[in-house]
Each structure stands twice: as structure tokens, then as C-alpha cells.
Amino acid sequence: GESVGLHLPTLSVQEGDNSIINCAYSNSASDYFIWYKQESGKGPQFIIDIRSNMDKRQGQRVTVLLNKTVKHLSLQIAATQPGDSAVYFCAEISYNTDKLIFGTGTRLQVFP
Amino acid sequence: EPEVTQTPSHQVTQMGQEVILRCVPISNHLYFYWYRQILGQKVEFLVSFYNNEISEKSEIFDDQFSVERPDGSNFTLKIRSTKLEDSAMYFCASRVGYSNSPLHFGNGTRLTVT
């Protein structure tokens, strides 16, 4: 039978509301961060990135906030749509490695 | 928009057999990667590759694994003798530069070892 995977934190939001997905990272040497969206059966899809010398970056309907003091990253999605339903991963990399490390992921469910 | 392509989308093999997973990275990218994702779990780093050699690898990437860039467009992952626990989604990724450029992922190959 199927193996049981990790229990993903789930965020349920109503269509049109704003979503905030949070991520804690552990490596204080990490200096580049990326948010990915993964839909069922697909690979991680790049959403937005941020460098450690910034604390905020905005894209289309998305904003990433970085708090290096508490090693916290968040992804804000404005006016959430059904197509935003997916698993969202934060990922980090430090300048002296070539190894992007993924977090556990958060499942976003958008209901009408 | 250019994308990373992977073939096959699904590979079924018997335990002990060799498999080769194929990837065509984005054409102007210089850094290449393999990741895997066991069902329902997070995406795990396997190996990074630059200038025709491995730059980093994880503890998962043991002697049963190898990578190759046989020509200017393909990037392959070979598993020499598959085990049941190798069953997973395998994702190829590439990026244009070393620092501050995102990895772009393919849609993966689902490997099922029976």
C-alpha cells in the first residue's frame, strides 16, 4: 500500500481572502531564499525569491517577508484564488554551498 | 518560456535493475541538480553538478547513484541496482548562475521499484 507521508500543516482560506504562509529556517548562514509552489503531480514551481540583504520583496499578488533576527520567512498571497491551492515550500541556500534545502511545506486549500 | 523537461514521466522497474532518468535542462543554464521526493514528503537534495563534475552530494547519493552530462543538452541520473526504497519522484533542476538565481524544476519522473 501507499506509505504515509509527513503530516503537512494546512492553511484553509476563502477565495478572495489574503493568505500568509510561514516558514522557519535554521541556518543563519543562508543568504538566499525561494518560495516554491507544488501542484499535485508536478515539480516545484518558482514563485518569488529574496536575498538576505532585503526584508521584503513584492511580485504579482505575492509578497515575501524575511526576518533574519528570528530566522523567519513568510509568503503573502493577496486575493487568494482556487488556482493557488497547492503545497508551498520555502527553500534556503547559503553562499558557500550549491545545495538548496527545502522546508517541510504547507498545504494551501482555497474554498469558495 | 523555457523549461526543464524530464523523461520518462513514470518508470517501473524490478529491484536490482539499473535505471537511467533523463533530463534536458534549460539551454543557457550552467548548474544542474537532482532532487527526490518520497510520496507526501519534502523535496530532498541528491546532487549538484557544474562544469562536468559533481560539486556537492548528499548522504543519499551513495555509490549506487551516478550522474552524467553526456552531451550539450542532456543530464542523466543512473541508479545502478535499484532498491524498493528508491521509489520516489525524481526531479531535475537547473539554474543559470551560482548565486542568487533560482533553481527551475522539471515535472519529475515517478520511479516505482517492485
Write the layout of secondary structure elements.
The complex is a heterodimer of chains A (112) and B (114).
Chain A: E1 10-14, E2 19-24, E3 30-38, E4 45-51, E5 56-58, E6 62-67, E7 72-77, E8 86-94, E9 101-102, E10 106-111
Parallel strand pairs in A: 1-10
Antiparallel strand pairs in A: 2-7, 3-4, 3-8, 5-6, 6-7, 8-9, 8-10
Chain B: E1 5-7, E2 10-13, E3 19-24, E4 31-37, E5 44-50, E6 53-57, E7 65-68, E8 75-79, E9 88-95, E10 104-105, E11 109-113
Parallel strand pairs in B: 2-11
Antiparallel strand pairs in B: 1-3, 3-8, 4-5, 4-9, 5-6, 7-8, 9-10, 9-11
What would you note in describing this structure?
The complex is a heterodimer of chains A (112) and B (114). Helices cover 0% and strands 53% of the residues of chain A. By secondary structure, chain A is an all-beta fold. Chain A has a single domain, classed as Immunoglobulin-like. In chain A, the strands form 2 sheets. In chain A, strands 1, 3, 4, 8, 9 and 10 form a 6-stranded mixed beta sheet that branches. In chain A, strands 2-7-6-5 form a 4-stranded antiparallel beta sheet, with no helix packed on it. Chain A is globular and about 45 Å long. The N terminus of chain A is likely disordered. With 114 residues, chain B is mostly beta strands. Chain B has a domain of 79 residues: Immunoglobulins (Immunoglobulin-like, Sandwich), CATH 2.60.40.10. Chain B has no helices and 11 strands. In chain B, the strands form 2 sheets. In chain B, strands 2, 4, 5, 6, 9, 10 and 11 form a 7-stranded mixed beta sheet that branches. In chain B, strands 1-3-8-7 form a 4-stranded antiparallel beta sheet, with no helix packed on it.
Supply the key terms.
A: mainly beta, Immunoglobulin-like, 6-stranded mixed β-sheet, 4-stranded antiparallel β-sheet, 10 strands, disordered N terminus, B: mainly beta, globular
Helix content of chain B: under 10%
Distance between the termini of chain A: 33 Å
Helix share, percent of chain A: under 10%
Whole-number average pLDDT of chain B?
95
